[in-house]
Model the fold of this input.
Amino acid sequence: MFSKSCEYGLRAVIFIAEQSSKGGKVSMGTISKEISSPPAFTAKILQQLTKSSIVKSIKGPYGGFTIEEPKMETKLSEVVSLLDGDSIYNGCGLGLKQCDENSPCPLHFKFIEIRDNLKSMLENTSLRALTNDLSLGSFILKR
Done:
């Protein structure tokens, strides 16, 4: 459902949030390795996340990427909108260009419910909530 860029972006921001909640900063190389993302692709995603002020980049030998305390309340929907726009909430389940109530694809009416549930989950899940779940050791960010 998400673009590759958005998948890596979500993984990156969750990983950075987890490290930030422990008081740490992480390098681009560490992020790339921990989320199994190509370094150049990771750098481009981090640039977008930094430009939007979700992630903070600190330069220098003791630098790295971090998420400041107030930004831990960032909802996943903000990250998805930044990286993928809102097409995930409007697109056709089969990828058709023309799909609406007047000319629906076979999945149209079932997919509306899935999209609405996804939107609700993304709008109601903060980085802080996910870092709390990660700290319990119940979840992973790479295989």
